[in-house]
Design brief:
The chain is built from 10 helices and 12 strands. By secondary structure, it is of the alpha/beta class. Helix 1 crosses helix 9. The chain binds NADPH dihydro-nicotinamide-adenine-dinucleotide phosphate.
């Protein structure tokens, strides 16, 4: 029996066990995949217990992704650039290799949705850990320009400087967003709950496609506010969740699962 898990804090809400069980069933793989709650101060020992019990692969989510990167013996290029790991692969000797499949997951979901990045103008709102994870994959899809705007402008500037070697990326102040972008990616943890702050209106036009990395209730306020500005095409990040899981599954099992039916079933399960 292959033993995998997702670690986070909190983690009870996670859909990863359902997604991985679904992939494994489709491919006839016997897999136990659990959700394990680990506060940051207990993560190292909880992961050790998991490995001693035969655990050979794990996903890692908030707030443990940076911690996970720090305890890996090896990092993929994506994980090293992000400074964050969402996929752990056991190596001999109780060591771990860390990877980050968030960027692949986002780009695969945009492709699935028919949203073109190549030659388009893209704005990312936010400059946190997830943006670090998605920037290399987005830049390799060759947008005409990629702008980062964030509440704390200095963080956007730092990211733009760090990733400038990979493509056309620049930081822009929120109050300087006067022209509509082809694609706006929302990657902040604001807009949770019922009191969304002001949207940078100038960045949105009727043709703008809006993608929120969050999903479910966490995405509803931002996407609703974008729709109120006249935006017609809005997407939440549930598809990215499935696609980043598929990329992690492929690393562990050597086979990339089919995802089309999984997207539809998961959305039905969530009642959205
Ligand atoms: P971080 O905590 O690293 O970054 C948070 C970001 O949100 C920062 O840019 C921060 O700005 C900004 N922010 C927080 N509060 C506010 C506010 N009130 N007003 C304006 N900006 C604010 O989070 P992550 O980057 O890791 O995650 C961002 C979102 O993406 C989360 O909701 C997460 O769930 C989602 N996500 C979804 C994935 C999927 O598979 N679908 C994968 C990964 C992430 P500042 O720098 O000024 O503090």
């Amino acid at each position: 029996m292959i033993r995998h898990a997702v670690f986070g804090h909190p983690i009870a809400h996670s859909r990863s066990p359902w997604i991985h069980a679904r992939f494994a069933r489709e491919l006839g793989i016997e897999l136990e995949y659990r959700a394990i709650d680990a506060a940051p101060e207990y993560f190292v020992e909880t992961l050790l217990d998991f490995a001693e019990a035969g655990g050979s692969g794990a996903n890692v989510t908030l707030p443990l992704k940076e911690l996970a990167a720090g305890l890996c013996a090896e990092l993929s290029e994506a994980a090293a650039r992000a400074g964050a790991v969402n996929t752990l692969i056991a190596l001999p000797g109780g060591r771990w290799r860390g990877d980050n499949t968030d960027g692949l997951g986002l780009v695969a979901d945009l492709e699935r949705l028919g949203v073109n990045v190549s030659g388009r103008s893209v704005l990312i709102l936010g400059a946190g850990g997830s943006v670090r994870g998605i920037l290399p994959a987005l830049l390799s899809a060759r947008p005409s320009r990629l702008a980062i705007a964030n509440r704390t402008h200095a963080r956007a500037q730092q990211l733009a400087a760090e990733f400038a070697g990979l493509g056309a990326v620049a930081a822009i102040r929120l109050d300087a967003l006067n022209d509509p972008f082809d694609l706006v990616i929302h990657a902040t943890s604001a807009y949770r709950g019922d009191a969304p702050g002001a949207l940078p209106r100038g960045a949105f036009g009727v043709q703008t496609v809006v993608y929120d990395l969050s999903y479910g209730d966490a995405a509803a306020a931002f996407l609703g506010a974008a729709q109120a500005l006249g935006v017609r095409a809005v997407h939440d990040g549930l598809g990215m969740l499935v696609e980043q899981a598929a990329a992690a599954f492929a690393r562990w099992h050597g086979v990339h699962p089919q995802t089309a039916a999984v997207h539809a079933e998961l959305r039905a399960l969530m009642g959205r």
